[in-house]
Amino acid sequence: MIERNALLQVEELYKSYGEKKVVDGVGFVVERGDIIGVLGPNGAGKTTTIRMITGVEGVSQGRIFFEGKEQTRNNRKMLQQIGVVPQDIAVYSDMNAYDNVDFFCSLYGYGKKERRKRVQEALEFVGLWEHRKERPDQFSGGMKRRLNIACSITNDPELLIMDEPTVGIDPQSRNHIMDTIRTLHQRGTAILYVSHYMEEIEALCNRILLLDHGRVLADEGKEQFMNKYQETSEDSLEEIFLRLTGTALRDQE
Amino acid sequence: MERFYGLLRRNLKRRMTDGFAFGYNIVFPLVLIGVLGVLLRGSFPEQITSYQYYAVVMIPFCTCMGVVTIMYAGKEDAFAKTGERVMMTPVSKVEIVSTKVFAGTLILGGCACLVYAVARGFFGLPGEGMAEILLFYFLLSFAVSGVGTFLGIAMKNFMVLKNVVTIPISILGVMAGVFFRVGSSSLVVERILSCSFLRWGNKALFLAMYDGDGTLLRRISVICVCIGSISMLGAVKRFRKEEYIYGDLPSA
To answer: In this structure, which of B17, B95, B128, B229 has its CB flanked by the most CB atoms within 10 Å?
Structure first.
């Protein structure tokens, strides 16, 4: 059944590679104004789910709705309205920061004048306007991550999917990125935030989606989640996470 | 159209700053024309010099060798890890494939025209049928770019393919007299030699330049358009997102 206020609705999504089930019946809803923290150990199916939503991976079974309309793998209209910050830093090292953002902005079909405005906004938003003429290979890890975000927000997305956007950066850059996400959220962008950093999820999100072995273990508002799974009032999100997903090592994703 | 222009600009810029494209399609043919021209000076009939001969045959050969550059271009988004981000924007596979083909056409064709211009200036190539000849260089580049994009984007085992693809081109080049003139009184050998499309291309260029007869060149130009178009359609048809994003890279 389609949720009336859903921006994105994922229904019973399955993905298998041969015999191996990677995503096993994942379903959830993203509403406008949501900022959902997606948690899960390596191999939980987080990145594969994102790739299926964006059409990069085909769906073995299941349905995806965006603004109430069922999506196919090549739905350009939906892609026009969402932004994705991929896990890897996906920018061209032979182009400066401005040209990188301008290039990805052009892929949303904006003309030159409109692009100039949007590129400036995006670079100022992530604090890189002063460095617009520098190439990413001259950037620190944090600056590259911020450029990675700038390339994903030039279309002013209604839904921003962020796949571990703060991996391997210093606390200052992380703090800046967190502020950026909060501002985007205040502007009305719904955010699906994938991370292994529990403190980020606790600080940012109003809902928690916990995946493991390709299945949804929990999908609750943050308060309800904590109340439901806390054994003592001092249990942290990380302790709950380990209790629900186990302590065995996961070496694959 | 902005998506198309954005991708085309990116591809053109990438090709223009690609040292391999210019090395293999400008410097390499000019050096070969000079070296082979010196070595075989005097071994040609009076109406043509060795430099002119090698200028005529070397340009199409080097354009064909440009297929390797174009194959790499098909994989560069996988190398840069930007393929996934590109696929997460509303671009179509037609836009991705066609911009790679057109950028390759403009760069390979431009290089061929530049070598032709240098050869005309320095080695006195005749100016007969120049417009048709320049158009032929671009259409041959279109065919090469179509095939290269197809091999680079649509085929698996990229690393193996790019190593072996130059072998048949070199053999066809030898059959077409690119390094030394070949010919035989044997009908069988002549038929085998005429299997090389480069031989037909060279013959057409000589006829257009020295006899003012562009009929064969026009026919071959049409064939080039067909090859380029079919390869481009094939690349669109066989385009796989996974292959474009992850590819068959050396580290894989």
So the answer is: B95
Check whether B141 has a pLDDT greater than 90.
yes
Measure CB to CB from residue B89 to each of A91, A95, A104 and give the nearest one.
A104
User: Does A115 reside within a domain?
Assistant: no
Check CB contact of B89 with chain A, cutoff 8 Å.
Answer: yes
| Cβ pair A107:B7 closer than 8 A | yes
Report helix, strand or coil for B88: coil
The number of domains in chain B is: 1
Q: Decide if A147 touches B, using CB distance below 8 A.
A: no
**CATH for A46:** 3.40.50.300
Q: Which of B2, B80, B245 sits opposite A109 (nearest CB)?
A: B2
CB atoms B88 and A76 under 8 Å: no
CB contact under 8 A, A91 and B82: yes
pLDDT in tens, B188-227: 777 887 788 888 998 999 899 888 888 999 999 999 999 9
CB of B66 closer than 8 Å to CB of B235: no
Q: Scan for tokens 């991996």, then name that residue.
A: A167
Cβ–Cβ contact B85 with A under 8 A = yes
Closest residue in A to B2 (Cα) is A109
The alpha-carbon gap from A15 to the nearest alpha carbon of chain B, in Å, equals 15
Whether A94 has its CB under 8 Å from any CB of chain B: the answer is yes
Span between the terminal Cα atoms of chain B, in Å: 35
Pseudo-torsion of CA A194, A196, A201, A207, nearest 10°?
50
Min Cα distance B86 → chain A (Å) is 8
Substitution target in A17, A51, A56 with the highest count of B β-carbons within 10 Å is A56
| Angstrom distance (rounded) from CA B149 to CA A216 | 41
Chain A residues close to B5, C-beta within 8 Å: 106
Average pLDDT, chain B: 88
- Rounded CA separation A122/A101 (Å): 8
Query: How many separate helices (H) and strands (E) can be counted in chain B?
Result: 14, 0
pLDDT of residue A250: 66
Question: Is A108 in contact with B87 (Cβ distance < 8 A)?
Answer: no
Task: Please check the confidence at residue A131 and state whether its pLDDT lies above 50.
Answer: yes
A129 falls within a domain: no
Q: In this structure, is residue B88 part of a structural domain?
A: yes
Confidence of residue B144 (pLDDT cuts 50, 70, 90): very high
Domain of A81, in residue numbers? 1-86+159-164+190-253
Question: Predicted ipTM?
Answer: 0.84
Closest Cα to residue A237, out of A215, A213, A214, A218?
A218
- Number of folded domains that form chain A: 1
Residues 6 or more apart whose Cβ sits within 8 Å of residue A19:
none
Domain that holds residue B73: 2-245
Q: Is residue B160 in a domain?
A: yes
